[in-house]
Amino acid sequence: MTELSTRFNFKEIDEKWCQHWVDKQTFHAEPNPDKKPFSIVIPPPNVTGILHMGHALNNTLQDISMRYWRMNGREAMWMPGTDHAGIATQNVVEKQLAKEGTRRQEVGREAFLERLWSWKKEYGDTIIHQLKKLGSSCDWPRTRFTMDDGYSAAVKKVFVALYDKGLIYRGEYIINWCPRCLTALSDEEAEHHDTQGHLYYIQYPFKDHPQESLTVATTRPETMLGDTAVAVNPKDERYSQYIGKTIVLPLINREIPVIADDFVNPQFGTGAVKVTPAHDPNDFMMGQRHNLPFINIMRPNAVLNENAGDFSDMDRFEAREAIIETLREQKLLSDIKAHPHAVGHCYRCHTVVEPYLSRQWFVKMKPLAEPAIKVVREGKINFYPQRWTKVYMNWMENIRDWCISRQIWWGHRIPVWYCADCPPEKNVIVAQETPSACPVCQSTRLTQDEDVLDTWFSSWLWPFATLEWPHDNEALKYFYPTNCLFTAPEIIFFWVARMIMAGLEFMGDIPFEDVYLHGTVRDAKGRKMSKSLGNAIDPLEIIEEYGADALRFSLIVNSGQDLFISKEKFEIGRNFANKIWNASRLVLMNSPQADRTATLEDLAAQKDSDLPSRWIIARFYATLEKINVAIEKYKYSEAENLIYEFFWTNFCDWYLEIIKKQWHDQTIQTIAYKILENALKIIHPFMPFVTEEIWRHMQTDQTLISVSAWPTRGDNLEDERISQDMQILIDVVTAIRNARSEWNIPNQQDIQCTLVCTSNDSQRLLKDNMSIIEFLGRVKDGAITDKKEDVKNAAISVIQDITCVIPLGDVIDIAKEKTRISTQIQKTQKTADNLTKRLQNETFLNKAPADVIQKEKERLSQWQHEMTTLKAVLSNLE
RNA sequence: GGGCGAUUAGCUCAGUUGGUUAGAGCAUCUGAUUUACAUUCAGGGGGUCGUAGGUUCGAAUCCUACAUUGCCCACCA
Predict the structure, then answer these.
(1) Which nucleotides of B are covered by protein (CB under 7 A)?
(2) Cβ within 8 Å of residue A875, ≥6 positions away
(3) Closest protein residue to B19 using CA and C1' atoms?
(4) DSSP characters for A366-418?
(5) pTM score, whole prediction
(6) Could you report the predicted ipTM of this complex, rounded to two decimals?
(7) Which terminus, N or C, of chain A has the lesser number of Cβ atoms within 10 Å?
């Protein structure tokens, strides 16, 4: 084998295997009738920019799962790809244009889209590259983009199908409008933040009695310019006399009626509401109920239009100030109260959205939601952690129609054409391909709808559109439905729920069985990582500095729900990778004669091996068992802790230390070698690079650990006896080390140690393993006896039925040792007392299960034994 | 206004269906360097499990209330 350097040189090795796996298409999967499939689709990262820590976490989780199942014999296919992310990507490119002093309207649609495609090329490639660097075992030749030709065909087909089914309609409604992005948004795309606003109380005078007025309260006084009524609750006696009266709207002197509507809450504000049907969803409905005029007072950019009288050409917030000022002057402003309320913001640019009346395309959601509710209720799809089921259900059960048209250019153009020669509203042609003529009047004067579709209208097809749907093909049949979706809870509504609906509607089957929702990555102070806060840690920087394995391992180990990370956290992973590297060096350097054809099962079956070897093999199988369960239950941090404990504490700190003087033994070489080999396999899903590299050094052929077989379980579960015996050895060694440390005895100085015990079992155990105790405890002349030693000036500790006596001569401070023993006696006494009390308690004896009582009795006798020994030790000191 | 989490060592987190003296990593303290690894090794200190009640023979674990904190949803202008 080749020499390994003293440190794990991750830069070189990451690069090497990253390249190798891609070049050899190690992770390409094809339908294989002999294997069960395991497939997942990546949540396609937006091509807006580069990957952040959240992506690193998301993809690490997916990769652990993929690698685990691949090694477990599945045909594992991980579909990679990217999302065009309509508004978001258009925004970043618009910002670029702005820097150049131009705008998309000046550049023109075609040239602007060219810019976007080149942006997509650059950032899409970067993202794929970053995913590779992370070690993601994706099926790279399948890489898809949500605006691929084939994908676009799927989107169009879906639009037409839903339209034909009557589930897509066009209409004028109040939607969320972003005045900066100049587009409609869906309800989900408007993020509500609690904001400290004001409630303005404004007096609206009556036409007949200008001295009298109704006072209304509003948070958006500028919208009063579009008021077409004032509403009160019909049961509100304070106002019943005014219903039907006419009010003269201040500032623009429009005459508007006082109407009665149940919607009005008499408790809120003054109980009288201004009604602005074109600028508020509730008012819109009232407007429809009462046949009120809809007066739009705003241009798309939220600057007031000609309907705003003196306030036209003012921005909405500027107009708010001006209106308040004017009303104040006219003594029509009776009060301003602080009023905290939720204000909608654009999820992409954070501008305050405006409820705006406009004609858009919508999807009727209820019919799609029903089957999607059913599959979750029936447990065909499961959420992990389970509590997210409720969140999903709640949204689905109250689902509202989905506004899917966007007034932007980057995206799937809506497959709708309008005939110039047909009457309005009857001129709509919905088709997958550009029609050559109007099917009704044969006119060729057709224009396509200018708008594009919501980005999620393509993402919701991801699990099957990436597999070439609607083309019937083997891969689609074989890999759909996928097994699991790994994503963040933020997009349950945007994406998860809609994929379930689309899957059921178009594939007639669920898109995935499990949905695993992981936490958000935050900084050490718990803030969300973001560019604008400057607290983001770039995963690539961590890969450069600590290695990809370290990044992956550290993101998972000790992780709670949300993830709080600082740079230091990555040291855990880096150190562990280095530990694996060096332990492997040690084993490989010392095991030239290891029998590489042996299997761990064979070795486990040899019952005459030495205790440490039997122990480490048993520990391995116990760990393997627990890891299998943990991974399959999505408990990745638990799995990592098990691996860490096994490899570092059991294997390195004990086993490799114990066998240090035994490398000449071929059996020891074989066992160490085989344990390492199998340990690498179970570490591999978590740390693919270091394990692949070491594997290559261990194998004579060119096999890859990535596609090796996961260790099989066998019946070699941990032997209770072996682990107990080994624990005694460990405790004895620890007691000796402890005494050394306590009495400041330098390591070079040899010490003596006498182990006193009476039972045959313990005697034999100690005799068989005395050399280990001597070696690890640096003991010279270890002795075993069944007679009580009457040694003065000795450090004494008790391990079950074994008393460990270390003569210290004048090094010992008798007073100090007495205190130490006394403290220990006190602790022991307390525990024993508690146990005694419990065992004397009638109700405990009556009600507790027999095995618990039995256990407690055994414990008590152990404690009592220890106490007797300790007391003897103490009296011996006096 | 509703819903869902969280609260365990200085920090980040484990803690399975209630049943040993509540664990780990980091940090801290003491000691170790011709040894595979100082990205290391050995040892120590550090917790009345947010508060108050309740259920139980027994509670970090189950129940109730409260506190603190985070997230999501919601048309009371």
Answers:
(1) 3-6, 11-15, 19-21, 24-26, 30-32, 36-44, 56-58, 70-77
(2) none
(3) A852
(4) HHHHHHHHHHHHTTSSEEESTTHHHHHHHHHHT---EE-EESSSSSPBPSEEE
(5) 0.94
(6) 0.94
(7) C
